[in-house]
Design a protein that fits this description.
Blueprint (H helix, E strand, L loop, with lengths): L7 H14 L5 E5 L2 H12 L9 H10 L5 H6 E5 L3 H16 L1
Parallel strand pairs: 1-2
């Protein structure tokens, strides 16, 4: 699923679904410094982009996000989206977890 899933209750729905249908549950946590996130939003504003993200949306997301539960933390793969190497490494880890 591709979404922000800011709240534990939202993530729990999909963790429970994965358990019910017998598939692995992996969270890909994409991170970047706040300054980088804001710069991306400003760049999007200068071109046509399908994203509805704005600085206000970002601020709302940051203020409403809930940290991971211990079970979610175990299922999470974190990638720093500033660097391609980190993203490639995170995706390799996701693929390995899903292949087990």
């Amino acid at each position: 699923m591709d979404a922000t899933f800011l709240r534990r209750s939202e993530r729990r729905v999909f963790r429970d679904l994965a358990r019910r249908i017998g598939v692995r549950f992996v969270i890909v946590r994409c991170e970047a410094p706040l300054v980088a996130l804001r710069a991306r939003l400003l760049a999007r504003a200068t071109r046509q982009d399908a994203s509805d993200a704005t600085p206000a949306v970002l601020e709302r997301q940051l203020s409403n996000r809930e940290g991971f539960s211990p079970a979610e933390a175990v299922a999470a793969v974190t990638c720093d989206t500033r660097q391609g190497e980190s993203l490639a490494g995170a995706m390799a880890e996701v693929e390995a977890r899903l292949a087990d």
